[in-house]
Amino acid sequence: MRRVLVTTDRIGLEELAGLLRHADVVKGWKLDEGGIQAVLPEVEAAILLGWPPYFTRENLERMVRLRFVQTMSVGVNQIRFQDLPRRVMVCSNAGAYSTAVGEHAWGLLLAAAKWIALTDAAIKQEQGAFDQFRAGAKDTLVLKGGTMGIIGYGGIGRAVARFAAAFGMNVVAFGRGSRREKGVRLYRGRSGLDKVLRLSDAVLISLPLTKLTEGLIGSRELGIMKKNAVLVNVARGDIVHQRALYEHLKSNPSFRYATDVWWFKEGKETLETEFSIKDLPNFVGTPHTSGPAGVASGEPQRAVVLNTIRYLRGLKPRNIVNRTEYAE
Amino acid sequence: MRRVLVTTDRIGLEELAGLLRHADVVKGWKLDEGGIQAVLPEVEAAILLGWPPYFTRENLERMVRLRFVQTMSVGVNQIRFQDLPRRVMVCSNAGAYSTAVGEHAWGLLLAAAKWIALTDAAIKQEQGAFDQFRAGAKDTLVLKGGTMGIIGYGGIGRAVARFAAAFGMNVVAFGRGSRREKGVRLYRGRSGLDKVLRLSDAVLISLPLTKLTEGLIGSRELGIMKKNAVLVNVARGDIVHQRALYEHLKSNPSFRYATDVWWFKEGKETLETEFSIKDLPNFVGTPHTSGPAGVASGEPQRAVVLNTIRYLRGLKPRNIVNRTEYAE
């Protein structure tokens, strides 16, 4: 019998049921160290949330049947590609969180554009008067008639493009896909990225963190954006250069950064920042809550099970990761 | 020459230019007490932002030619109807802020639904870790597939209905208009209001404050709403009963209230509340900034000038207020 290792208890029994018709399901979170060691050589496919501590280089060498890894997350930057044999196909869960993350992204955009988080906090802390807080809410951005720029035009990007259209915005996008959608102008390459940044009143970052995108938004890119633009990040913190962002926010008080994702430190996302960027009034941050909200909907769980079944049935899985884009 | 008194300098010269072809424009903010006294008996129409201090009962008695009052605001609850002769037609500026206020309302909804204001403040104050803040962000509301209820289906309500449709929500509305719009189910009367409150995952209050709507949302109405619903108010604070809301928020931590408008105290909107409602984590408040953002767009100014011209040309003005709905 073929064996699929599921390393997270976030996938319910109902969702796993579909998998049972095609393979034996090993519930990793129920096994002790001995059980894990016994089963690893038999595992052909693995469904991961994060990187399991027992996926060490030594254990991976013993997993001689492993051919397929499916992540619950959209991003795969947590995968230790350098320890994973070339024969293993890695699939991301792109698209499965588009609704939850897209909605969260739009909330971050409006919270910054309308200074909602800032004035809510000011009212609660200072108990002051109207005029003072209104003065702090200058440069409120009206979205209608403005331009929305989307950096990375996948599932989340397309969801946000729909919201932007409903708000009466023009939509421009930077991406490498060949899709063209009604009303959305797609740009490519370095000059395309610059074009989107220059044109937009609000910019969404929704592309994966790879060797190519790490630090993609640095001081040059921030510098060509509009002075009162709002930059929203729901992808990965490290796509934006932290020092460059800190300096840009400090010297451009009408420019706003709103993020659900944080910079990595020693391989782990953390709310601790290198610069005191959280103290700036034009910084809005949520603790990577957009994804967990998606998990609550069950959509990502259904998607990983379906994609693993595609692999088991010999069909081409969706969202196969191009490993050359990640450090090995 | 017919005379129009403009009491606010928020209307620019460009916008006033259109008015000059039909009447003499008196800039109230440029006159001293003597100048005001001299001009009042000649004023036929007045454009107001708020209620001018010199519109006392005595002065209004001397304004024998006054026939038309146009407010810059959508709400007209600041008008002293009891001092204003019956012959004076009062027009609100309904619709002129729909874009700015609708966008702000959607921002408030998402800030509460996704706990954006709460977690942003928690991160900035406590410098804590991910898991703690994520636990605080339980009950995140995914809008797609849910139901949006709109109490008061005017310009702002219709703008928000469009946003809700783009987010994949069903839309139900409570209103007295006869309009029916594609995809929006309209309900009327007390039972209609209850229906909308019961069905909805998110509810927008966007109707005027009148004798009929003061305290419209009390403990009974809050009690029939879903336990994890989000209630958004961009109309007037006093449509919601403060004590009932405070008690409901305290005993239902997943229920959220997000507001741009505040309760009146001694005839004036104030951020001071009777109950310590601002300390509750499920309360989000902005300092009535949605309107000023609209003024920045110039839309309300253009609308009041156009409507005053309609009056001067003998056409029926828009947004004539039914005075019997306001305390006299």
- Reading the helices and strands of chain A in chain order gives EHEHEHEEHHHEHEEHEHEHEEEEHH
- For the termini of chain A, the CA-CA separation is 32 Å
How many DSSP H or I helices of chain A? 12
Shape of chain A: elongated
Largest sheet of chain A: 7 strands, parallel
Evaluate the radius of gyration of chain A.
22 Å
Strand content of chain A: 15-25%
Sequence of strands across the biggest β-sheet of chain A: 8-7-6-9-10-11-14
Count of individual beta strands of chain A:
14
Q: Uncertain runs of chain A with pLDDT below 50, 5 residues or more? A: none
Structural class of chain A: alpha/beta
Largest interface: A-B, 55 and 55 residues
- Bin the helical content of chain A: 25-40%
**Subunit organisation of the chains:** homodimer
- Report the mean per-residue pLDDT of chain A as an integer: 92
Written description of the protein model:
The first copy, chain A, is elongated, with a radius of gyration of 22 Å. Chain A has a seven-stranded parallel beta sheet with strand order 8-7-6-9-10-11-14. A five-stranded parallel beta sheet of chain A has the order 2-1-3-4-5, with helices on one face. In chain A, strands 12-13 form a two-stranded antiparallel ribbon. The first copy, chain A, starts with a strand and ends in a 16-residue tail after the last helix. Chain A has twelve helices and 14 strands. Chain A has 328 residues and is α/β, with parallel strands linked by helices. In chain A, helix 3 links the parallel strand 3 and strand 4 (68-71). At the A-B interface, helix 4, helix 5, helix 6, helix 7 and helix 11 of A face helix 4, helix 5, helix 6, helix 7 and helix 11 of B.
